[in-house]
Task: structure prediction
Amino acid sequence: MSSSPDRLVYMANQIGKFFQSQGRDRAVQGISEHIWKFWDPRMRKQIFAHLDAGGTGLDPDVRDALQKLKQQA
Result:
């Protein structure tokens, strides 16, 4: 599956919106766990590349979750 960065950013931000009500720390943890469990490795690779290129359009909690996930990967 090849998704454009825009589509992946949209999907990641939607996940972020779902977890937003749980407070920042729990949201960041929930976002990173969700992306690790449910995203194809190729999708994670693409969103990490987008993050490395500046992460345009990513919500702050999503950006933090991806940074955390990238460090663990």
In short: The chain has a mean pLDDT of 94.
